[in-house]
């Protein structure tokens, strides 16, 4: 039985810090087994706090050697330690200097939070609450301080010593040791502190900002990785230029350092002047990186760089405001990528991602508002809701007030809040003040969980030539929020004539008709919009560009087919094709469940043929249009999912389309064969995507040798991996040989080896669970490396639904076993991986029971981390 149930932190309990810390001097004596950290904090009583309030310092796993207050050693009776490792000191004057000395052990820190070692080098990760694992400190984002850092270490083993800000001298420290000093002139919260030290080499470049500041750019990697940093550096320079061009925001230090590390919990971290990156989002070469990898690097480099203003200069008051920096920064990186390539394809991909991850979250046990009301472990709230839905909410505001007012709002937001820790209200208010538009209703989007359902119906009256469009919204209940209010939903739309031609639109009360797309704003539960002078019954095109993160209902199949062909908006064309296919497939799933023949809707083959015929114009778009709805997307449309039936239907359809469209697919495949040099621009990436989509259909139709031939001759990772993943689904010698060849070639490259694990974990073969269990004991598997753990455990549980949900329950058992083994090593990653078991309510009772049993087994594990406890206990409620 649990004795101490973890504490729930509530947004409504916010209280300002009792003391502020104006300056911090940190001194690190680095040693893998025992590092000494000296901290000197200049404290000042917060005018907003009570005059006699004590000083509260967070601490976690620290060994205190000494504490001095104003130069005098504090006796033990002045130090009140709490069970969580934090320290309270009473009786301080209004101004005081606290000096502490602590010891920590980086080399045994497997949580990868705080100071840890990876490959013999030192790295820190402080967001959200890792700084307290380095020194005693009010570890909360509303305490902002100026940092000076001195690092001392063995010169031979640790030649490079980095921290935030600008370098401020280096020198010999005697006895084979050396030292470096860093000064960060910008006040920052502790979560942005960073230290990186070790045997690293830099790839360097320079950037001159618009106002003439010369910035040294360095990407620090392990020796041997230097030649794989070009794309990251190029992406960084483009990001810096873009933020100046679009937002007038410049970089504000003399150096910008990026360090890549292979043991990292997340994608990357925006520490001031010293970003730390998962190697996955830095290193890439033609041979080793897929097109998805190239794009991921561009996005994440931009994201972290953009945080310098949205996150660092203007930061969050408390962690409930996390989306203030994350939603806004994701919005900014999405726009950057849209400007770098195809806006339409980028939007399609982002919406695909939102629906794959955020919609199910919003419909599951961990559903939470973009601004949560409470948490047990903040690490659990770095979610698709906070990031992706948060970005959608920023986009809603952008759509509502327009690009020009939005830019003015950003200027106002950064000017008013520079060097401060603020709230979502400060962002919305700036946008409101800059636009003169009342945005108060948009708080509903921040504070209410669940995905709104938007239903459209319409009628046409030939006598009055009036077309009436009625929009209705409803949000299903989520845990803790049974009753929902309407939220403002901007619906970008247009009307098409019966011939498919776009119509100008005039709403009742307007003087003139408007051409192109217009945006209706649904504010209440239901609203009708009357269009005048409509010559014939039109087809409405709704939610162009996915103007709001909602589920649109009520569009008939006939209209979907029509819109997929005729609409002017590429998003709606793609979306209509997808929804049409989804509707057909869900019907097939029902047939499969009843044991009836699946049949085939010829319109799907027709659509594929049409798309292939027009593919030359925009191969990347064609590749998106040709991709059938994913298994997860289909499951999310069902009250009770049936992963096995969904998989069978999707396979059947792929094979059927492959057979019926074989000549056209083959012709496209052949025509797109790479001839010139390898390129990673949008067109080249689009061509490879389309070609590999054709390959998938052809392979499904039985053209096995084609994938093998592509695998044998591929000159880049995208083509090699596309072929290998198709082979991995097959049986026989070619499969085993390809997997063995791939392993032999890439055994020395961790990032590629991750792909080798994932491909096998996601192979939908009947022996999948046994294969995954075997890979778990493979000599190259390492539970402690988050990328590797995700590549096997996460890929299987999230990327192989038909096998994970095998009725034996063995898939669930494997996941629970892995989570129980990982939790004491890295609770943060264990809590993330356990997620799929929480979706038991969406499965049939037989599966749900088995899933709950495994959740319970995890919950019964002694000393469970707070994060895993929160996920599992909420899933079982
Ligand atoms: N703040 C990081 C980002 O989104 C994510 C992160 C969170 C990294 C927590 C590490 C730990 O850019
Ligand atoms: Zn971020």
TrEMBL record:
UniProt enzyme class: hydrolase
Segments forming domain Peptidase M1 alanyl aminopeptidase Ig-like fold: 450-553
Catalytic activity, as annotated: Release of an N-terminal amino acid, Xaa-|-Yaa- from a peptide, amide or arylamide. Xaa is preferably Ala, but may be most amino acids including Pro (slow action). When a terminal hydrophobic residue is followed by a prolyl residue, the two may be released as an intact Xaa-Pro dipeptide
GO terms classed as biological process: proteolysis
Entry cofactors: Zn(2+)
Cross-referenced SUPFAM superfamilies: Leukotriene A4 hydrolase N-terminal domain, Metalloproteases ('zincins'), catalytic domain
InterPro entries: Aminopeptidase_N-like_N (IPR045357), Aminopeptidase_N-like_N_sf (IPR042097), PepN_Ig-like_sf (IPR038438), Peptidase_M1 (IPR001930), Peptidase_M1_dom (IPR014782), Peptidase_M1_pepN (IPR012779), Peptidase_M1_pepN_C (IPR024601), Peptidase_M1_pepN_C_sf (IPR037144)
GO terms assigned for molecular function: alanyl aminopeptidase activity; metallopeptidase activity; zinc ion binding
Domain Peptidase M1 membrane alanine aminopeptidase: 232-443
Residue ranges annotated for the Peptidase M1 alanyl aminopeptidase C-terminal domain, each copy included: 558-876
Keywords, sorted A to Z: Aminopeptidase, Hydrolase, Metal-binding, Metalloprotease, Protease, Zinc
Residues of the Aminopeptidase N-like N-terminal domain: 108-192
Enzyme Commission designation: 3.4.11.2
Family, as annotated: Belongs to the peptidase M1 family.
Name of the protein in its database record: Aminopeptidase N
Organism: Dankookia rubra
UniProt gene name: pepN
């Amino acid at each position: 039985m649990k004795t101490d149930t973890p504490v729930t932190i509530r947004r409504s309990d916010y209280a300002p810090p009792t003391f502020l810390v104006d300056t911090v001097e940190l001194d690190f004596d680095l040693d893998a087994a025992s590092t000494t950290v000296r901290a000197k904090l200049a404290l000042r009583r917060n005018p907003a706090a009570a005059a006699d309030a004590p000083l509260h310092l967070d601490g976690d796993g620290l060994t205190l050697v000494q504490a001095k207050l104003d130069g005098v050693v504090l006796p033990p009776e002045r130090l009140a330690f709490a069970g969580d490792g934090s320290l309270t000191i009473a009786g301080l004057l209004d101004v005081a200097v606290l000096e502490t000395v602590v010891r920590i052990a980086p080399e045994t820190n497997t949580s990868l939070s705080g100071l840890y070692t990876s490959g013999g080098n030192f790295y820190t990760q402080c967001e959200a609450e890792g700084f307290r694992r380095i020194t005693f400190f009010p570890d909360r984002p509303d305490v902002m301080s100026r940092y000076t850092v001195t690092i001392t270490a063995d010169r031979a083993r640790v030649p490079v010593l980095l921290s935030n800000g600008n370098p401020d001298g280096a020198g010999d420290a005697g006895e084979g040791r050396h030292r470096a000093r860093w000064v960060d002139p910008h006040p920052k919260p502790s979560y942005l502190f960073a230290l990186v030290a070790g045997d690293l080499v830099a790839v360097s470049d320079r950037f001159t900002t618009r106002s003439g500041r010369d910035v040294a750019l360095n990407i620090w990697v392990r020796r041997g990785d230097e030649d794989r940093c070009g794309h990251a550096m190029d992406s960084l320079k483009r990001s810096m230029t873009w933020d100046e061009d679009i937002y007038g925001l410049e970089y504000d230090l003399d150096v910008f350092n990026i360090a890549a590390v292979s043991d990292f919990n997340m994608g990357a971290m925006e520490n001031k002047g010293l970003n730390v990156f998962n190697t996955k989002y830095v290193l890439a070469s033609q041979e080793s990186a897929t097109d998805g990898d190239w794009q991921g690097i561009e996005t994440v480099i931009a994201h972290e760089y953009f945080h310098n203003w949205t996150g660092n200069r203007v930061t969050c008051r408390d962690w409930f405001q996390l989306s203030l920096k994350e939603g806004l920064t994701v919005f900014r990186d999405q726009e950057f990528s849209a400007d770098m390539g195809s806006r339409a394809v980028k939007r399609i991909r982002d919406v695909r991602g939102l629906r794959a991850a955020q919609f199910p979250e919003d419909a599951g046990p961990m559903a939470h508002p973009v601004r949560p009301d409470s948490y047990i472990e903040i690490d659990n709230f770095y979610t698709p809701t906070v990031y992706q839905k948060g970005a959608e909410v920023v986009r809603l505001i952008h759509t509502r007030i327009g690009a020009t007012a939005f830019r003015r709002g950003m200027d106002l937001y950064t000017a008013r809040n520079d060097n401060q820790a603020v709230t979502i209200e400060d962002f919305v208010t700036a946008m409101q003040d800059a636009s003169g538009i009342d945005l108060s209703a948009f708080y509903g989007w921040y504070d209410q969980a669940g995905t709104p359902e938007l239903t459209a119906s319409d009628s046409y009256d030939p006598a009055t030539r009036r077309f009436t469009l009625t929009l209705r919204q409803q949000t299903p209940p989520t845990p803790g929020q049974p009753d929902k209010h309407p939220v403002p939903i901007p619906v970008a739309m247009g009307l098409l004539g019966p011939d498919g031609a776009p119509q100008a639109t005039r709403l009742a009360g307007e003087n003139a008709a408007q051409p192109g797309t217009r945006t209706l704003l649904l504010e209440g539960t239901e609203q009708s919009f009357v269009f005048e002078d409509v010559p014939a019954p039109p087809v409405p095109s709704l939610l162009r560009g996915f103007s709001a993160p909602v589920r649109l209902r009520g569009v008939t199949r006939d209209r979907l087919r029509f819109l997929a062909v005729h609409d002017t908006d590429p998003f709606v064309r793609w979306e209509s094709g997808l929804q049409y296919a989804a509707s057909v497939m869900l019907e097939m799933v029902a047939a499969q469940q009843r044991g009836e023949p699946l049949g085939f809707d010829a319109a799907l083959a027709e659509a594929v043929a049409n798309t292939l015929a027009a593919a030359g114009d925009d191969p990347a778009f064609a590749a998106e249009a040709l991709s059938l709805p994913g298994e997860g997307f289909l499951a999310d449309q069902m009250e009770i999912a049936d992963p096995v039936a969904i998989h069978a239907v999707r396979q059947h359809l792929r094979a059927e389309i492959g057979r019926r469209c074989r000549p056209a697919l083959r012709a496209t495949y052949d025509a797109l064969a790479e001839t010139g040099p390898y390129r990673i621009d949008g067109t080249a990436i689009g061509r490879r995507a389309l070609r590999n989509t054709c390959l998938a259909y052809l392979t499904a139709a039985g053209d096995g040798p084609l994938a093998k031939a592509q695998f044998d001759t591929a000159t880049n990772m995208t083509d090699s991996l596309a072929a290998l993943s198709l082979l991995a689904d097959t049986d026989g010698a070619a499969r085993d040989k390809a997997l063995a060849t791939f392993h032999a070639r890439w055994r020395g490259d961790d990032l590629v080896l991750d792909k080798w694990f994932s491909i096998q974990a996601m192979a939908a073969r009947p022996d999948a669970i046994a294969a995954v269990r075997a890979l778990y004991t493979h000599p190259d598997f390492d539970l402690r490396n988050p990328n590797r753990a995700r590549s096997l455990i996460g890929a299987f549980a999230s990327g192989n639904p038909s096998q994970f949900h095998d009725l034996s329950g063995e898939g669930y058992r494997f996941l629970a076993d892995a989570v129980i083994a990982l939790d004491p090593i890295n609770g943060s990653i264990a809590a993330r991986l356990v997620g799929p078991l929480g979706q038991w309510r969406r499965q049939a009772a037989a599966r749900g029971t088995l899933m709950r049993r495994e959740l319970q087994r995890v919950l019964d594990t002694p000393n469970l981390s707070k994060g895993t406890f929160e996920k599992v206990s909420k899933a079982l409620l």
